[in-house]
# Entry
Amino acid sequence: MQSWQEPRNRERIYHDPLHGAIVLNGRDPAEALLIHLIDTPAFQRLRRIRQLGPASLTFHGAETSRFTHSLGVLEIARRAFDRVAKDYAQLQSYRVVVLCAALLHDIGHGPFSHTCEEIFGCDHEHWTKRILIESEPIRECLDRFDPDLLPQIQQVHRKQHPVPLVWQLVTSQLDCDRIDYLMRDSYFSGASYGRLDLDRILLALRFEPVTQQMVVAQKGMAAIEHYLLVRHFMYAQVYNHSKNLAATWILSGAFRRAKELLPQGKLWADPNMAAWLSEDCNEISLQQYLAADDGVFLYHLQQWQSADDPLLADLCRRFVDRDLLKAWDISRLGDSKQQALLQEARQKLDYLGFAPDYYAGICKTVSRGYTLYQKGINLLTDSGLQEISERSPLVRTLTQPWQRSWLLYPRQLNLGELVQSVSS
# Structure
């Protein structure tokens, strides 16, 4: 391996649609390390993991990867840290920790990103920890730079670093991860209301030397209010879009059926896919986890369209061809009314020859634009630190949870008859 000061290419440039040219200087030891980490197989795998899972079935431009997002988080973290640290020499030694933690924060994501966690119960943070420890190329890079670097990165990911600003830049209510994914997901989904004023947000960040935490200058409150409002709209209109719920439902149903068929010897799957279907995905081998990506899972879904089991074949066809379930907003109905509606739908589907549990269900979403997660966002005011919701009526409003309920059903079900039967 090349020395840290002289990687194979002394300068690495990534042209990003949001941040422009992300330039890593190979003569800088910390940035040389980043180049080596990016070139590891485990990190390159993120090119094959879509940032928004199956959301491209709803927003056709939403095909960006965890790789591009991770580079974006790195770039924002670098800008934020370098600006804050220029006035505090004691922070400079933490630069490499912040940058590595930002770059590697999502390396544990599985196929279809968060959707994979919903379906299989895997935990990407658990896998991030395992990959950093067990992946030899990554571990070699980190240990060769500094044997104490990995424990410090783990402190950041666990929100336990002794200098709160170090972990707050990576994982907090106002972190570089959230800023990038809101900007990136808005851009690629076409949701223009998701545009953030990144410059104003970064200019508002401060280091409070007494508590050693990240705070926001009072004059930057409007930029933070806008950021939180954008987050509210993105969850309401993009992340929790009814078509996303329908796509996830079909995808989950396909893998659920595959899990039922595999132990019966009625399903073909390669050894890695078989491990995902038959074992706890948090306990499978590192090789089996890293061998899984969107392409591998999609290949199996395509192959299973020809399965002998008609239920699995139809679920896979529906996902591949985007023949999704319909979604009806039933949020206005009470829980008992919703359940009565679901039972009636399933009875009618059973009569029509559908497997009721697979083709009808209720999906609930709960979102709020702001919480006091990790002590919230603190403003630096003339009277000291103050939590932002105490100063902003808008942010106080965003702390209220918003729940919605959707009935998912196939288009073959006559919704008019369903409503009439339940109402009578």
Remarks:
- The CA atoms of residues 57 and 321 lie 10 Å apart.
- The first strand starts at residue 11 and ends at 16.
